[in-house]
Amino acid sequence: MKKRTLLAGVAATALASMSFAGSHGDGPVKVGFVYVGPIGDGGWTYEHHQGLLAVEEAFGDKVETVYQESVPEGADAERAMTQMALQGADLIFTTSFGYMDPTINVAAKFPDVKFEHATGYKRADNVSTYSARFYEGRAVQGHIAGKMTKTNKIGYIASFPIPEVIRGINSAYLHAKKVNPDVEMNVVWVFTWFDPAKEADAAKALIDNGVDVVLQHTDSTAPQAAAAEAGVISFGQASDMAEFGPTPRVSSIIDNWAPYYIARTQAVLDGTWESVDTWDGISTGMVEIGEITEAVPADVKAEAEALRDAIGAGEYHPFTGPINKQDGSVWLADGETASDGDLAGMGFYVEGIVGDIPN
Amino acid sequence: MEFGSINPVLLVASLMVASTPILLAAIGELIAEKSGVLNLGVEGMMIVGAVTGFIVAVQTGSPFLGFVAAAAGAAVLAFLFAVLVLFFLSNQVATGLGLTLFGLGISALMGQGYVGIRPPASPRWDFFGLSELPVVGPILFNQHPLVYLSLILVAATWYVLRSTRMGLVLRAVGESHDAAHALGYSVHGTRIAAILFGGACAGLGGAFLSLVIVPQWTDGMTAGRGWIALAIVVFASWRPWRVLLGAYLFGGVTVLQLNLQAAGIAIPVELLSMSPYLITILVLVIISSDRNRAALNAPASLGRAFHASH
Predict the structure, then answer these.
(1) What is the pLDDT tens value at each position of chain B, 310 positions in all?
(2) Nearest CA in chain A to B15
(3) Which residue of chain B has the CA closest to A227?
(4) How buried is B110 (Cβ within 10 angstroms: 0-12 exposed, 13-18 middle, 19+ buried)?
(5) Residue of A355, A31, A344, A48 whose CA lies nearest to A193
(6) What domains are there in chain A, each with its CATH number?
(7) Do B223 and A358 touch (CB under 8 A)?
(8) What is the ipTM of this complex?
(9) Which among A155, A192, A196 has the least Cβ separation from residue B221?
């Protein structure tokens, strides 16, 4: 096994150095995208693909784009990335958390190719990371959810127990709790980014258990349809999902990757690309709050928009103390805000959420 | 027993719904494999059924026509497979895998413009108000027609395979195509019919996902259910009732673990999440633990090409 991997590595490196010998400079810059789901998921991958289209629009024939859909996280991802690099891609965006180690591995074999990994934390000389502060949007959702729930039970369809997802749960809970002290959060882990039937089943299970607001951190629109059938409310995730408004979808978080993708492609064209760590939120527009529909009372809508604007202006941080961890120990003292380092590695629930985070 | 906020009646009713796509696909594949054809394209046929059913239901406003079209659409794809493996003698494994990739691709193409549309609602059957009965009402008398159809199909498959001439011929073709051919039975005819039946069932299963469970069209929405169906056929050692057991166990434990999580029952989520796979495999392995009999039950000509000239 080891020998084969080694040989494959040597072969890949040899091929890479061949195909890149003198190839750079003239032709168009080739930009690759690795997607975890299908473009038509209506959520996460759809928005990344909008970013690809924006790059094409912005640079015309100066760039050439390639993408691959539904690439499983794990060993297969390395194959997809290696193939893209061998095809001569100059810049590759790998758009799911589970591509972190594969990206680092493949990047080590192709030192001349620039990699950009979404939502991860491992970087190298030719690997940047970028993510959006989704938790800022979750704060706005939590506020609306806390105000709108009548059963005082909010359901959360969670994908994988990684910091990004846990931050979203905590942020939504804290802001729901702030406006509704009786609120409970029911979290269901589905261990998938994209499986419409399972997401729908999870939504139904939550609704059967008395939840009347459904938040999701998975990529398809299936929970929206389940919420519509049951007559409860929901929020668009990653993409606006406006077709489900005015109810069940009462608002949404929209990931707007286009400006970032254009800027990074420009950097490769200019030869100024270097490894960076980008984490933008509402202030730069990487996280947008979709229109709050008329199903939400005007005063709640105004409060939610004020919250959004305060976060955008930097006047309010969604994780501002006093906040205790689930076990009751102090995390943030009164008035203290969470550091980016703390947030990046968040692996605990805040006080009040019931249940354990799976390992 | 106290299950927190879980309502056991609703749970059983929803596990039957959640299991139906896998059950339909698996029972179709069982017939195909009993005739000696290994069709690994179940996933592709399901997704094509899901999209054809969805398009026709939206265009005509009739879920019934949608299901008919789903069965037909997936059967067309299955026919392609039949022609390739029976007449061009292509490798069944490779062709089946190709069929899945082709199905996923063409369904994404066909489904463009149907993303985010709501299909017409499928009515549930209500037997003269019997659904109002406590406990048995929601479980037995308030399901989607296709749930009943899937159960009838299991019973019919069992009966036909065991007690009819048609079933005997099908099994003969699957066990020894040369002997069946020598006796004058049409090996190709039987296999085409079995493959088409398998395709139609997979298509129905797919449409049940896109029209009833989810209900909407999303690319790649079968998300591996076709592969689960294939595995269940093997673990059920090609017996219809065990296919039912396997499909309901898998669907049931999936729904149960989501409900346990939603109700906040303190069982480690990791255990819950792997339990559908674990329990289904375990139970089916135990009931088919007599290795000799289980091996005998695999159709002897499964996956082998047949050419009438020798």
Answers:
(1) 345 667 788 888 888 999 999 999 999 999 999 999 999 999 999 999 999 999 999 999 999 999 999 999 999 999 999 999 999 999 999 999 999 999 999 998 998 888 777 788 777 666 666 667 777 777 777 788 899 999 999 999 999 999 999 999 999 999 999 999 999 999 999 999 999 999 999 999 999 999 988 888 888 888 889 999 998 998 888 999 999 999 998 888 888 888 888 888 777 777 877 888 888 778 777 777 776 666 667 888 888 888 876 4
(2) A201
(3) B214
(4) middle
(5) A48
(6) 2-132 (3.40.50.2300), 134-254+287-344 (3.40.50.2300)
(7) no
(8) 0.81
(9) A196
